[in-house]
Records
---
Amino acid sequence: MKLITVKRELSSPLLRFAAPFISVLVALFVAGFLLLAAGVNPAQAYLEMLQESLGSTYGLSETLVKTTPLIFASLGVSLAFRMQIWNIGAEGQIYMGACGATGVALFSGIENHAVMITAMFLAAFLLGGLWAGVAGVLRARWQVNEVIVTLLMNYIAILGVDYLIYGPWKDPKGFNFPLTAQFSDAARLTEFFDTRFHSGFFLALFCALIMYLFMERTVWGYEIKVIGSNPKAARYAGMRTGLAIFAVLFLSGAMAGIAGFGEVAGLQHRLQHGISPGYGYTAIIIAWLAKRSAIGVVIVSFLMGVLLVGGDSLQLSWQLPVAFVYAFQGLILFFLLASDCFMHNRLKLVRGERHV
Amino acid sequence: MKKFALLMLALMLILPQFATTAEANEKKIKAGFIYVGPVGDAGWTYAHDEGRKGMEALPFVEPSTFIESVPEGAESARVITGLVRKGHNLVFTTSFGYMDATLDVARRNKDVVFMHCSGYKAAENVGNYFGRMYEPRYLSGIVAGKMTKANIIGYIAAFPIPEVIRGINAFTLGVRSVNPKAEVRVVWTQTWFDPGVERDAADSLLDVGSDVLTMHQDAPATLQAAEARGAYVIGYNTDMRSFAPNAFLTAPVWNWGPLYAKTAQQVKDGTWKSESIWWGMKEDLVQLAPLSDKVPAEVKALVSEKTAAVKSGKLHPFAGPIKDQSGKIQVAAGSVAADGDLLGMNYFVEGVRGTIPK
């Protein structure tokens, strides 16, 4: 007897729609036992999580604050994934975007708010794009694996930011702490409702819309899909795959770069360690769960925001150790990915040693 | 505008009632703590948590809350706000990277007292506090200088920020005060808490011949490395001797309890006001853990003599003349480094082998 996986015939649209929700419920059910073991009433805990992340203006604002960089980065990652280009380097591209925006904020001397923000945005877009573009050139010209290049360039980007904040960009009035000076008011995104919720969120929605139109309504979007699913056919059809690879990685990195722009201009107001607590990696999961669709990215990013912000309440209200929060979030992701896998494959028991 | 005015009016009617009820009851302190590592790190965070428990012994202090492994930077603002929204009226944020977030949350919550550890900013309702860890560091350097035979001492250090650089310098000055031939080799890990990375750094320093190690990290990995390779080790943060029964010599340690208790008392009494606290051995905020049996009696005697001198203020670890690595005089003979210079220290003293990224 052997357990094997076989490809599943097309599953029903209803099931495809419901599967992620079912898997979250299953995950919550399983995590409930963990909570019970820790002496916490699961129903109460889940209610509290929802209240924390959605139940008040403040909670909702924080959830959206968290959602914003996730949307940007996940859009970028999704775009590349559509072409079967595996950009694992969103984290580094976020750092480079933050770096570009900070450079403009600190040294351009622009005083007009709109001009400043636009310049910071463009710098982040360009730097994030060029950073990923390196992997694009290597892949397009010499078939260098972009997974390795983008991944390793994360470390270079983060160390590069370290170099700047320990060295030339260090705040001269900061007692030699590794921080840049704080941005002027012109370089800060508008905040609303006396919360940290900032205009970056609307920009994220706008980018999602642009990305949707680009992917679904333009010839380029179509070409990207074709190149992704069948590069040979694409080449026969006269598509310039090399250029497309570079362009897609550039845009992918540029989107992640904007996430960095949003974080420094909207939240941190300076460059320092920990601009991104792993948004670039979370974006990979989101892109996957959202099936590389722009609308899906917005929805899944929001759900991820709820999960991340709600997770705080487990520590806040019940003093559960942080390891528990990680385990909880891990469980949910695990079930989501499992459902995705079983959507396309099913398990089959076979007798004997027959090879399939 | 009209709505706003109405709202203000409503608030003015309601607020005084709150004020009177609050005054009628004895003010209780509900404190929250933000930790950068897990409470089980046996180091930095563990020491803060011991302080928290010490404070909880006060009758007017309600059970306090801690949130562990909170990322530094803007991310922390949400967690700090979470504590405020849960009704905490005294919040301690215990790592440098929470500085901006603490000020940001404090600006929006004027009725809560915030205490930020190891930074330099303050506000009306934000005080900052830290300890003169360089004092026991200097004393532990004396122990290291006396115990090394190879004259190579390894120092595993987290980030090249003034706090850490100051510790390395004080330690080295202590070493060189008794052993001018010894040098202190520094390896940066770029992390506060990562036992694996810390262990690798410790091993690399042992590989180049160090026979005494010390560290500025939150985990006890360095101690375990020294124990495994038969070297001596000086801990940090807490008395970590159980991790290295044979290698352990001593450790400069934190004792936050009295400061936390005092702050809680002040907030309760309404006498708290924002200030920058920088206590030393005299106030017992920083200490040198008891020396182990491996340390000879005459070294013990020397250290206890110097300890008394530091406490009385007769001995300042950063008394001139102090030269930096290039031989340039940084602190002139006959003077001591000013607190401002210590807080922004950005050079290595003579005797350190290593570089500060610039």
Note: Chain B is about 40% helix and 15% strand.
---
Amino acid sequence: MSDSVSAPAPAPVTVLLVEDDEVIRRSVAMALERYGYRVLVAADGLTGLELFREGRHDLLLLDVMLPGLDGIGLCRRIRETATDPILMMSARGDALDVVSGLEAGADDYVVKPVDTPVLVARIRSLLRRAAFVPPVAEPAGPAEPAGPLVFGDLSLDPAALEVRRGGERIALAPTELRLLLEFAAHPGIVLDRQTLLREVWDYGWDGDTRVVDLCVQRLRKKIGAEHVETVRGFGYKWKR
Amino acid sequence: MPHFRSLRWKIVLLAALACASMALTVGVLVHDSVLRRSMHEGAGRAHVALATALEDATVAGEDGPRVSPGELPEALLRQVEHGGEATLYENEPPAPVFWAARREGGKLYAVEVDMTADLLTRQALDRHMWKYSLLTLGVVVPATALATELPARRLRRVARTARRITAGDLDARTGTVRGGDEVAEISAVVDSMADSLQQRIDTEQRFTADVAHELRTPLMGLVTSAELLPEGEVTDMVQSRVRVLRDLVEDLLEISRLDAGAETSQPGPVDLAALVRDSVARTGLAARVTEREAAVVESDPRRLDRIVSNLVVNAHRHGAGRVEIAVAGRTVTVRDHGPGFPADLLSHGPQRFRTGSAERGHGHGLGLTIASGQARVIGATLDFANAPDGGAVATLSLPQDGPPSEV
């Protein structure tokens, strides 16, 4: 993380920050700008929603407790139409806040107070997921372009990052897509939560495994629960 | 199969006892009264037989049924000497008889009446009473056992619910109970107890969550702003104090979550030796880790890490000399070579903001409180002791893995 100060992001990435506390809003904006990000700020949920609709951002950083439309409601509204990467910031950090944020469709969360380097690391990891080039596309046999992978009614094109269920295209948030690709790359193999946290979320050892559980739940809702099997006490398995 | 001391078996035993004692009382009374009547009748018959024999003899002009004293039982003789006439029951082989004897004109007359039929009747009656008493017991005992099965099962359900609540499943309820008996009452009481417990914990949890929000929001502004300060001596001071304040707030919030019972274990398979090594490495402090038959346990890795790192940090902050960590089986021992734990801590356990004595240095004394609290959450025990050759020894013992279904 020490290299991050001197190396600004190559293209200016725009973060939409929605935070009601003025000091946090301004200091986080200034800190992120030092790391080379562009920051759009909103002090409440409705302003945040308007700025979101203008569509000048690459990533959303949402506080949970906001006047008017709160972060969870905002996240839900955004997820109705969009798959933009969303990072939640919670000052409560208890199960209820975290779970409802992730259920509403957030990709990840941080608990306040958070050091800027940690915040930047999470943002980068999330952006990597959003601009993900999957390793499954590597051809194993002949060098022809890999066709879509088919699992029952589900077809997954790792090159175009397109997922269809029964011919209909499904919109997946970056984390959900990344999780799906991770599963599809290891069919029939049990993946434990720590592995998924490491591979999908870029967490070290100590991530919150609820993030995995809730993202798997969201993914199941979108692609059909039958594809991902829960292996009690271990993790999850993709059915061939 | 319920325990032999179960209420059910006690009730069955009681019913059997009541049955048996009633049968015994009735049996003894009947036996006694039949015997008395039989003796009375026997004496009468013997008497009549003797009188008849004497009368017949007089009519016939013969001598009566004379006997020599030697032929008679001694007890009968004594009675005859005393009263002139007597009867006696004698139950000796070959057959039970009733004697009647009379002394008349210096001569001794006696007859005996056979009592075999009478004895057989009485024996048959006794046998019958035994047989039907046992038969009644044979019916009553299983019937009682069956009848007590339902209340016993309901009680067991209440006990199971209470056990689940104790184990932390606050959603466990006995549910609707039929009938208005004591079992229904205790079920309702257990349920309402769980309700109020749940409510209190909910309130506590909401409170700690709100406190967390109120504390962390300004702290977040402080942390981020402090990072923006230009480099310099003053900045270092501010940032260092901000870090201390932040750690302190996090520790306090963790303790209040532990106190509120808001923490629940999220178990998974953990390689104890690897976890301890990682955990020590992350503290960035020097410590020697030895392992012997370290187990793979079913536990919450994040909480284990909190415990181990708090123990190591505490050993460094308050102890002295080498810090040694031994992982053996399901236990982790952290020891240092300093002055040891203060007596107060050994007797009362860790208490927040009390480091005990000046020689253990400064600090807030929250680390061990947190370690103890987290150990409780994962069902482990954390013991504090002092080594005989000096130094503090903290021992974390993990419980045996429960059946996977309880996870």
Note: Confidence is low (pLDDT under 50) at residues 136-144 of chain A.
